[in-house]
Structures are given as C-alpha cells and as structure tokens.
Amino acid sequence: MEVLELKNLWEQIKGRLTAELPANAQPWIYPLEVTGYDKGVLTVVTGQLMGRDILRRNHYNQIVEIIKKVTQNPDSDFVIIYDESMAKTIKKENEKIQKKIETAELKEKAMENLSYMPSSNLNLKYKFENFVVGESNEFAYKVAKAVAENPAKKYNPLFIYGNAGLGKTHLMQAIGHYTLFKNSDIKVKYTKTEDYVNDFISNSRNSKDTIENMSKFNRKYTNIDIILIDDIQFIESKKKTMSQMQHTFDSLYNKGKQIVITSDRLPKDIPTLTSALCSRFEMGLMVELTPPDLQTRFNIVKKLANDNDLKYSDDAIEYIAKNFENNVRELEGAFNKVSAYAEVTGQSLTLDLAKNILKCDDNKDEISFSKIVEVTANYFKISANDIMGTARSQKTSTARHVAIYLARELSGNSFVNIAEFFEKKHTTIMFAHDKIEKEIKVNNDLSSAIREIKQALKVI
Q1: Nearest one of 224, 263, 253 to 117, comparing CA atoms
Q2: Domain 3-82 is classified in which CATH homologous superfamily?
Q3: pLDDT band at 96; cut points 50, 70, 90
Q4: 37 three-class SS
C-alpha cells in the first residue's frame, strides 16, 4: 500500500477509534503511528509500553472490529508493537514539556506573590497579556508598556483619560504588574482617588496624633517608586486634598519616581481643579482611550469565551460585539450574561442563544432621542431648543431632566451616549436621571407627567 494511501486509511481508523473507544483509552490512541497494512493486518507502533499492554488487553476486539468496518475486510487483524527508540523520543519531549510547565508555573506563582503584596493593591486580572489591543487603544497600550519597561525615564507623569469602561484601570495596573515582575524590590502602589481622599481626611483630623498620622500618610504615598492614581476627577472641589495631592506629586516627581493617573476627562475639563495641579498633570504625556471598534470588540468577546473554556460560534460572538459598542465593561457584562446561561443549561454559545438572552433585536425600532425631546417639549409647552439649550428656568430644567430620564429608560442607551446627544457631561446626565428617578416616587404630578409623555410616545 502506498504511503499516502496508508496514511489516509489510518486517519479514518484513528478517527473511529477516538470516537468509539472509552475516554480512558484516548491517551494511548493519539501517539500510535501506523507502519503498514499487509494481507489484512494493520501494524502500528508505540513508545508507550503500558499503552501497548492496555490496548491489547482491554480494547483489542473493539479495535479489530473498527478496522474491519473501515477496510471492509472481514479478515482484518491488528498488531501493536512497542518501539524503544520511539519511547526515548517521547521521554525527551515529555521532559521538555514538563520543564516548560514548571518554569511557567514558577513565573506565575512569583507573579501572584508579587501582585498580592498588600501595599501594591493590584488585581491579577489586569495584566498586559490580558489586554486586547485594537486601533482605539494601541497607542495607549504601547505608551503604558514603555513606561513599565523604563519607569520615570519618559512619559512622567502619564495621564490616561477616557470614558468609563474602556480599560484605563487595566492599563494602569498592568504597568504595576510588569514592573514588579521584572524587579520585586520596586515599590508600587495603586490607589483610587476616593481612597486617597478618605485616607487624607481620616489622618488630618485634629487630634493629639494628627502630626504623627500625617507623617505616616506622607510616607505611605511618597516612599514608593511608582504610584498609580485612579479616577483623579473625584478630587474636584476638595481644596485641602488637592493641596495635599500637590505635595505628594512634587515629592515623588522630584525624587524621580513614576506617576500614572487616570481620569474620565482632561485635566482642564475637571471643574475646580487647581491650576497648579492641572499644570502638573499636563506636563507629561496625556493619552486617550476611545470606544473599541468592531474587530477589537469581537476579539475581546472571543478571548473571554476562550478564557472560560466556552464552546461558541463566531456569529454569536459577532452578534454580541455588534450590539454592545460603548465600552469594554458593557461588552463583558453582555458576555457574562449569556455565558452564565450557557454554563447552567449545558449549552454552547450559539447565535440563537445570544439573541434569546440579550434580545438586542427588540431595540432596533427604539424611540429616538430627538422624538423624546420633541414630545417632552410639547408637554411642557416649550421648544425642543429650550431643552437642548442651557436655559435654567425651573420649567425648562425639569423638562430637560425628564427628557434625559426617558432617554435612558426607553432606549437603554448608556449615559455616555445620552451625554453626547444632549452635549452634556455624562456625570450631569447621571445626576438628572437619578434626580427624576427619586422624585417620581414622591411627586405624583411628575409621575403623571412622565406617564402622559410615554403615552404620547406610544410606549404604554
């Protein structure tokens, strides 16, 4: 029999063997190599002595029956031979694989130990290897990697800004992980601005220990090599804390330490931020993260599925990626929802499953923001331009807040998208929505107004 013909025959037989023999036989089937098929006898060799004995003793009859079916020869037989040279090759390969596994495990263990140092506050989830790179974040990723490779050598401070859920915290903490992995002696500290503020307030209260407490506070935030400060926008309006932050910044910068800051906006767009802090934040490099494009979103969802060992179809992944385009957090939320259902019900992630769970198609004919503004304006007897403008009379402000509330409730769109339409900051949109949501519980007139606007929009 020709070599190619023999190979094709063996592939057919091997396919049937892996499909029909029990799971405990599979490890012994895969390494088999065919050497001949002569006069109805199929000969294979193995480098696994135990495998040979197990297949001969427990599965010989099954194997012969499968060979008979594939070859359509009722007189077929099966011979398995142990090959010492093959065994040596397998042993060497196994030793190489084991060495790689042990090395990888040691590195991972070291990484975990470093990352969970109490002083660093880092989350193992946020590493460079877990960050999906696309057009919208490639520059920010490369800059963050450059900072991690050479802290304080350039791009200091590094200021990363963008809307919520785009990966600012991920990139920031990845810098910390990377530097710790390279040098365990480096002192890294990640802190949320809110925690920094609370820590400062707690330690600066007048008491007999205030001087000692503030001394400890200063050492905590300046006796480090890399500081990672998340969501700096929350420092606005806190004058004393801003003054302290300036001290922390100057102390670290003058000692040649790396400073990384994230925010949902540029320093100049943070209300009440002191000019001194603003100029300091702007003196390094500022990089923006924008919403990921479709291909990046597809890659993110696909990675999530692979990381969770979830069986999936590409069209299901694409469906999720197409319908959740605002940020990575929203995308992960959608994936978690369908993956949880798939896991509980024992299904793979199919397009039908994604559609049934997420019901994105139900929103295709959703009411537009413009229509909501128009109907709301008519109800309050003002113009749509009044709602979209900056007038602050009580009637106009209420109408504007109601339109924002309905835009969120009826469309399910993100605050970021709604903010773009109304040309407001997303924090302003969130405030307006929350204000109406609370007020309709106690204000019957407002509750009735919203019900009538919904009726006019034909949604109830």
Answers
A1: 224
A2: DnaA, N-terminal domain (3.30.300.180)
A3: low
A4: strand
**How far is it, in rounded angstroms, from Cα 35 to Cα 3?**
9
pLDDT over threshold 60, residue 438: yes
Q: How many CB atoms lie within 10 A of CB 446?
A: 17
The neighbouring-strand residues paired with 190 are 228
Judge whether 294-363 and 369-456 match in fold: no
For the chain, give the mean pLDDT: 86
CATH dotted code for 369-456: 1.10.1750.10
Q: In whole angstroms, give the CA distance from residue 448 to residue 428.
A: 24
Q: 240-261: per-residue pLDDT in tens?
A: 999 999 999 999 999 999 999 9
Q: Tokens for 432, please give them.
A: 């307006």
> What is the Cα Rg of the chain in Å?
32
CA dihedral sign, ordered 264, 338, 141, 130 = positive
**Which two structure tokens, joined as six digits, stand for 115?**
């990352």
Show the CA angle centred on residue 284, arms to residues 281 and 287, nearest 5°.
85
Distance CA 434, CA 412 (A): 15
What is the residue type of 28? W
Q: Where are the domains of the chain?
A: 3-82, 128-282, 294-363, 369-456
Q: Give the three-state DSSP class for 197.
A: helix
Q: Cα(78)–Cα(36) distance, rounded to whole angstroms?
A: 10
Q: Thinking of the domain 294-363, which architecture would CATH place it in?
A: Orthogonal Bundle (1.10)
Contact 353, 347 (CB under 8 A): yes
Of 111, 96, 226, nearest to 172 by C-alpha is 226
How far apart CA 227 and CA 172 sit, in angstroms, is 10
Helices and strands in the chain, H and E counts? 20, 8
Per the listing, tokens 């390494």 go with 31
Distance CA 354, CA 314 (A): 11
Low-confidence winner among 1-15, 100-114, 144-158, 176-190 (lowest mean pLDDT): 100-114
CA gap 114, 134 in Å, rounded: 28
User: Phi and psi for 438 in degrees, rounded to 5?
Assistant: -75, -40
Q: In what order do the strands lie in the sheet with 285-288?
A: 188-192, 226-230, 258-263, 158-161, 285-288
Q: How far apart are CA 181 and CA 111, in angstroms?
A: 6
Contact in structure between 367 and 410 (CB atoms under 8 Å): yes
Angle between helices 328-345 and 351-358 (to 10 degrees): 110
Spatial separation of the C-alpha atoms in residues 49 and 204, rounded to whole Å: 73
Longest Cα–Cα distance of the chain, Å, equals: 99
pTM: 0.57
Please state, in angstroms and rounded to a whole number, the distance separating the CA atoms of residues 304 and 10.
36
Q: What is the CATH number of domain 128-282?
A: 3.40.50.300
